[in-house]
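Hey, can you fold this one?
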Amino acid sequence: MPDATGLELLAQDLRAAPGLGDDAVLGAVHFRGQATLEVRPSAVRAVLARLRGQGYGFLASVHGVDYWPQEPRLGVHYELLDMSALDRIRVKLRVSTDAPEVESVTADWPTANHQEREVYDMFGVVFTGHPDPRRILMPEDYEGHPQRRDFPVGGEPVLFTKDHDRDYTR
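Sure. Predicted structure:
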């Protein structure tokens, strides 16, 4: 885990990188032993590629977050590992519910395939350029995103084709 000074140096390096721009990294936070870079949504793929070149070659996870009532409300968190240095860094971004779009990183990180689909399914973040943007956990015709904080508690009963004759009112 980069310490606070190392994280800020990494953020400065990313801001100075050709093609990224000085606004690609919005912030660098070292909190409770966790190093996190906050990036502009349009720069996430380039930032992750740059971090891969610096040793963070394993994308461990992609998560969705709902920061309701704050805006921008939806977040996507990526966790990268440097296996040789036993190092970890988090990259996060935020998008509004009006345009919840982020470029897919599946082409560069195949492990993101199912994880991006899950974030779309549960939170509604659309990953542009994803090779298979179908729902992964909920039925295709399901309306809504059950992990959003404004989703009704208890939700709706999910009817799968094998259960279509079952009476859920009892």
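Residues 146 and 154 are 10 Å apart (CA to CA). Let me know if you want another pass with a different chain boundary.
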